TrEMBL record:
GO molecular function: lipopolysaccharide binding
Protein name: Bactericidal permeability-increasing protein
Main function: The cytotoxic action of BPI is limited to many species of Gram-negative bacteria; this specificity may be explained by a strong affinity of the very basic N-terminal half for the negatively charged lipopolysaccharides that are unique to the Gram-negative bacterial outer envelope.
Keyword vocabulary terms for this entry: Antibiotic, Antimicrobial, Disulfide bond, Glycoprotein, Immunity, Innate immunity, Secreted, Signal
GO CC aspect terms: extracellular space
Domain notes: The N-terminal region may be exposed to the interior of the granule, whereas the C-terminal portion may be embedded in the membrane. During phagocytosis and degranulation, proteases may be released and activated and cleave BPI at the junction of the N- and C-terminal portions of the molecule, providing controlled release of the N-terminal antibacterial fragment when bacteria are ingested. The N- and C-terminal barrels adopt an identical fold despite having only 13% of conserved residues.
Quaternary data: Monomer. Homodimer; disulfide-linked.
Localisation: Secreted
Gene: Lbp
Domain Lipid-binding serum glycoprotein C-terminal: 3-131
């Protein structure tokens, strides 16, 4: 039987996280056209009006962008049952005006504890991720 053995330590993963964070590679810009059509929340001021009615009043039905980034290096650890991580991120929302100017709308700092568990079934590698806090 073919077999694959993979060994990775906390040090290797946290060194990679440090390198990516220091290089500024842990950021992502998300626009409405990047979200699936069935996604329950669209990146438009009309949808965000539920959270901020003044945003909808000031910029009716304008597109929005989210800029996600890491505020600090992610911390990761391996345990026998799963991969545990602590993420320190921020999400900044912008309203996109018709002339392509971006107006800051709000900023959320998000710290999260997540757990990932790898799954192998029928010769396929997959996994689950759950939010712990």
């Amino acid at each position: 039987e073919p077999m694959l053995l993979l060994a990775v330590t906390d040090f290797v993963v946290n060194s990679a996280a440090f390198t990516y964070f220091t290089a500024g590679a842990l950021h992502r810009n998300i626009s409405d056209d990047m979200l699936p059509r069935r996604f329950p929340l669209q990146l438009k001021t009309k949808s965000m009006g539920l959270f901020s009615p003044k945003l909808q009043e000031r910029y009716p039905n304008h597109p929005m962008e989210l800029h996600l980034s890491a505020r600090r290096q992610p911390l990761l650890s391996f345990r026998p049952d799963a991969l545990h991580g602590t993420l320190f991120s921020s999400a900044e929302a912008f309203v996109v005006l018709p002339n392509a100017t971006r107006v800051p709308a709000f900023l959320l700092n998000i710290d999260a504890n997540v757990t990932g568990k790898p799954l192998i079934s029928r010769n396929r590698l997959g996994g689950t991720v759950s939010l712990k806090g």
